[in-house]
Fold each of these.
Amino acid sequence: MTVQRGRDLLIKMDMTGDGTFQTIAGLRATRISFNTETVDVTSLNSPGGWRELLAGAGVKAATISGSGVFRDAATDERARAIFFAGEIPQVQVIVPDFGTIQGPFQITSIEYAGSHNGEATYEMGLASAGQLDFVAMPEPGEEPEDYEGDGSGDPGDPGEDLGGGPVDEPDLGGE
């Protein structure tokens, strides 16, 4: 993998519910974070008194954050409407040379700021609200790797029965 431009990490949202994703306009800094809670099963019989964790038992979560400037009134208005209505739209995060993460997210915060001698800015936070799907970015000339087992290589519809069992998730070095 070569060095990637930060501006190529995109956050896209299904603004209308029809499966068409639009890049959230004006973002200048974006971040996605994956976390798993641990389930401690340590007992008096644990070897050497070391903590023991139960594999695969913790709750998985992802958060997205971004900040930027106002560029597109329609996107800004729709994001605000999604927040106040408590909707949970589908979101895609495209990580260059890595892949696409897609799933339901709720907008958990929108912050607006501005200084006397600068532009008006906003910050947005989103939290995962269900299972996320991951499709690896193919190498040039290769087909996308299918992590769902449905043969399509697409992130898919979260309500669809994929028949492929649990989705393999990338090892992101978290807890």
Amino acid sequence: MQSGCLSGHQLVHLLWFMTSIQRAGRVLAVGDIHGCLTAWDTLMTAVQLQPQDQVVTLGDYVDRGPDSKGVLERLVALHWQGQLIALRGNHELMMLRARHSERFALYHWLSAGGEETLASYTGGETRGGLTSIPEEHWNFIEKICVNWWETASHFFVHANAYSNLPLSQQPERMLFWQKFNRPTPHRSGKTMVCGHTSQKSGEPLNLGHAICIDTWVYGRGWLTCLDVTSGRVWQANQDGQFRMGWLDAFNPCNTYYH
């Protein structure tokens, strides 16, 4: 074999490496959706999702906004496409407990936005109760969603994490309920990406080692998507507007209508 030529084994390895590079897509984190289907659809159009991309949604898909049913339908479909890592949020926990626990848990959920969720399944009425929610949606929340997820450089939780504990040992109170409150760097050295603590400014809060992207879409804010590798940010709202910017110096470009 001439010098500089590749052996069969080396060629196979090179082809595998090139294919893996071609398949490597973006890791796109999305903040709390809260039943805001128009914002979700507008955001996905702006992001221009590619087959290689992986979407990590940070929980709180239901409650407060007008179309929790539609949001869950979109997420279930994206899951079956193999492109979704879906985390649970505290609102999914409340919804599950309303189904499985005593009556107080149902009242608690309804008062926290569950009434809007039920209304999205019954055409504006809440009398259909929990039985109006299809089993496919219960299965998604209970069995497909996860409590946390991580890559080589980032980890994703709904609310927060103790800096001195591995993700597998984080208590429920921290993962789902604790406010952002300027967390310290995690022992893993990875960057935390979370939601839960709504940023009323409508802008992500970036501490470098921790990033909160709940930007209050159900209020007067935006739904945020972050490319965790490049720092590119896309946002959309319930009026069908979208805008783009960069995480390190968030100064969004002009706002556009979809």
Amino acid sequence: MLCYFYYSKKYKKHYLSFYHGDKLDYPELIQDGRKKFKILLIDADEDLPLEFILSLTEEIKRYIK
């Protein structure tokens, strides 16, 4: 698994959750008690940060076996 899209009841926002996110160090990502995943909250009123999401997926691919 690389990532998944879901809705957070806690933050009341959609988010992308990245597996091996614990290996990434970006202030936009939230660990929030997870061990292997970090999430990127998505603001419904703004455009998706596509370049950032694509760069995260490329970086995470290095950790997937």
Amino acid sequence: MMTMKIKNYRKLLFLLPVLLQVCTGHLSAQSETVRKIDSVVKHADSTGIFNGNILVSENSRIIYEASFGFTDAAKQEKLNKNSRFHLGSITKEFSAVALMQLKEKGKLKQTDEVSKFIPELPAWANEMTIKDLLQYSSGLPKINWKNIKNDRDLFNGLRAVENLDFKPGTRYDYNNNTIFLRHFVIEHVTGMPYKAYAEKFIFKPAGMKYSVMTPLMQEKNIATGFKNTGVQDPAEPAITGGTYATARDLMKWADALHAGKIISEQSLYDLGQGFPDGNSESALGHAGYHNKKLTRHFHQGRAGSFEAVLFSDPGRKINIIILSNSSAGQLSALSDAICSVFGLKNPDSRK
């Protein structure tokens, strides 16, 4: 653990000269802004801490877009703007938004118990609410991945849970069992597979034409995760929920979500309210508001060697999207540096 921290610290030092450069002076011309963004990203590339795609937009227009590195461990095929990356935990926004869509349609309430929709679950489902699923306060134990091969295994695992780790709504625990239970609630309420629901009511209205949810079916332009040692990530189990997207599609998601095209402004505010312990992540990651209007949206996701960062300032209509399939753990520092170009401060990220 200490060795990893030292390595990350040393890599961060490579970015410090760039951070100091972009934090000084007044930036006025867009060409100067783009030049400084390019300097930051190329510096990260040259020091070997970035393999992936990056996109920066302002006023709904892409001002910077570039690809660095390779699609897989073989390093024979270069990444391009059509490459699709695993979004990690950012994909959890989709199930949270889906629940809010169902709330807006009168299909459920945040105060509803989970047992109302899935009565075959054990007695603990009588104490757990939809809000607990959204705020990561369900009390569910962590998944034993050794026993998981598909969605049915996940559901059977939930049915086999006898005791919760704590009373729902009393503590925060960032837990994937909570996320998969969201999926099952959506399926029971709508009568649709969660993947089909996401494609119809999340991806399509947001204009995300190139986004796909696992399990994948011989899709093209899918980047493969690999370590900087050249070792490729193992194959994923055939479970629903992971999302592969292009940088442009993730930008479209942010713009549509913030513009009220997917859920209402009130629902967007509700999703940004994390468990009230002062150190929790909301369903949107880290969200800031002023008079209930979203002012900052930062979400970081990881899955194997994949890492993704989404930063948005809806007021200034700025999006910073960084996607990597061979993470060196420095995307947050990279997004900090790009935020500095615009005079913005990036919220703290949860790994």
